[in-house]
Amino acid sequence: xxxxxxxxxxxxxxxxxxxxxxxxxxxxxxxxxxxxxxxxxxxxxxxxxxxxxxxxxxxxxxxxxxxxxxxxxxxxxxxxxxxxxxxxxxxxxxxxxxxxxxxxxxxxxxx
Length: 111
What we know:
By secondary structure, this protein is mainly beta. The chain is 8% helix and 44% strand.
């Protein structure tokens, strides 16, 4: 079945998220880890893959990030960002590696 991006977003929104130990981040555990990251918040993750959906001026956009080293993932949008982690874990370690997800339609926006 080929789900639309809107169907995927609705699926992610309907998970029963619970507060985590990370400010601005809620989590739901199933076979995968689902995250709801509030606007202007961040989380540090270990290497793995992150699938995400955000709202942009041009509509909903989905993307996948292959995290190669422990990185801080910043939600720089004005909306919640919904993510699915594959082979990633949360980390408390400080890192200089930063990934910014921006919602604008300019060249500097990530997706």
